[in-house]
Specification:
The longest helix is centred in the middle third of the chain and has 24 residues, at 184-207. The protein contains eleven helices and 13 strands. It has helices spanning 11-21, 39-44, 66-72, 104-114, 121-133, 144-159, 164-175, 184-207, 239-250, 281-296, 325-329, and strands at residues 2-8, 29-34, 53-58, 77-82, 94-98, 208-211, 215-221, 225-228, 231-234, 253-259, 267-272, 303-306, 313-318. The protein has two domains: 2-182, inorganic pyrophosphatase (n-terminal core), CATH 3.90.1640; 206-329, Diaminopimelate Epimerase, Chain A, domain 1 (Roll), CATH 3.10.310. With 330 residues, the chain is of the alpha/beta class. α1 (11-21) runs parallel beside α4 and α4 packs antiparallel against α5 (121-133).
């Protein structure tokens, strides 16, 4: 039997996959690290000519690939461990173990205990790390040293969101029982992220363009870079994290206008709201549209909104031909 294990590449996903593999009696498995939006395409890579395989999904939203999973379930058994509510749990050959109130690692932890598998101290450590990373503490207090380890791993994972090989290396270290504090690559990446973040915040002071009662607006070029040890790091992929941190610092709704000079749509806007601001993203999107239209003499059709109104962030695309910096800030 070959296990195809699809894990989400966040803290909970990596810890959960490690905990599962530490106790499943198999030497034959393939790890596929992916995000929710990649799951559908990743499942398509499984050849239907293969036999005697089992598919395991860990910390992924299976609802996004329901059709592919239904097709595969005609040939293979599928187990889904997730903290999401899954809408097709009674399908043939598909087993769903879920609990929206727990981290996926704790779900697997409880599942293993129900199988009468004895867990050791490192298994408990992985579950605590996942709980902290998933912010599902269950009203428990954890040592400060453990929280620092989680913060370092979280920082290391943000350095390159698509570095799946790094995620697999961390997974393998966890399977062997090596804690975060003893993994040098995590420490080095975390230090790099701290430096980059400090530099980005330094740059943000120069990029603030407008501030109101509840809103602060910054403007960047997507090709802006920061320097670390003589190596250039582009800002691409860092804006979501930056916007979140700036929203916390300012205690306001934070918008970053990002110019994309090489693409037709010209620029887009990333937004994060501070927790103290009680507004839905749909309301904010409408307000921002109204603001841009009034300040830049734009038509509503020139602005498109992409995102879930209940999510934590969103993108708004605007046509650069209709907006200039002076119009935007005056």
């Amino acid at each position: 039997m070959i296990y195809y294990i699809f894990m989400r590449g966040n803290i909970d996903g990596i810890c959960a996959a490690a905990l599962y593999l530490r106790h499943i009696n198999t030497e034959k498995y393939k790890i596929i690290s992916c995000e929710n939006f990649q799951l559908k395409d990743s499942l398509k890579n499984i050849s239907k000519r293969e036999k005697d395989i089992s598919i395991i999904l860990i910390n992924l939203d299976a609802n996004l690939a329901s059709e592919e999973l239904h097709n595969l379930s005609e040939l293979y058994s599928i187990i889904i461990f997730t903290d999401k509510t899954i809408s097709f749990s009674n399908k043939k050959n598909i087993s769903v173990i879920s609990d929206p109130d727990k981290s996926t690692c704790r779900i697997i932890h409880n599942w293993l205990e129900n199988q009468e598998i004895i867990l050791n101290d490192f298994d408990i450590y992985l579950t605590i790390i996942a709980d902290l990373g998933d912010r599902k503490r269950h009203f428990r207090e954890f040592p400060e040293s453990t929280e620092i380890q989680v913060k370092n791993l979280s920082s290391a994972l943000t350095l390159n969101p698509y570095d799946n090989e790094f995620r697999k290396r961390v997974l393998n270290e966890f399977i062997k029982g090596i804690p975060i504090k003893e993994i040098d690559e995590i420490r080095i990446k975390a230090v790099t992220v701290k430096y980059l973040t400090d530099r980005i915040f330094d740059l943000s002071r120069l990029h603030k363009k407008l501030e109101g009662n509840n809103i602060v607006i910054y403007e960047y070029n997507e090709n802006d870079i920061v320097i670390f040890n003589g190596v250039e790091y582009k800002m691409r992929g860092r804006f979501s994290y930056l916007t979140k941190q700036l929203a916390i610092i300012n205690k306001k709704i934070c918008f970053i206008l990002i110019h994309k000079p090489d693409e037709k749509e010209g620029c887009y806007i990333v937004m994060r709201k501070h927790n103290n601001i009680k507004m839905s993203l749909l309301e904010i999107a409408k307000l921002l549209k109204k603001y841009l239209i009034s300040k830049c003499k734009m038509n509503e059709k020139d602005i498109t909104y992409n995102g879930n109104p209940f999510a934590a962030s969103m993108n708004i695309n605007v046509d650069i031909n209709h907006i200039g910096l002076n119009d935007f800030i005056n």
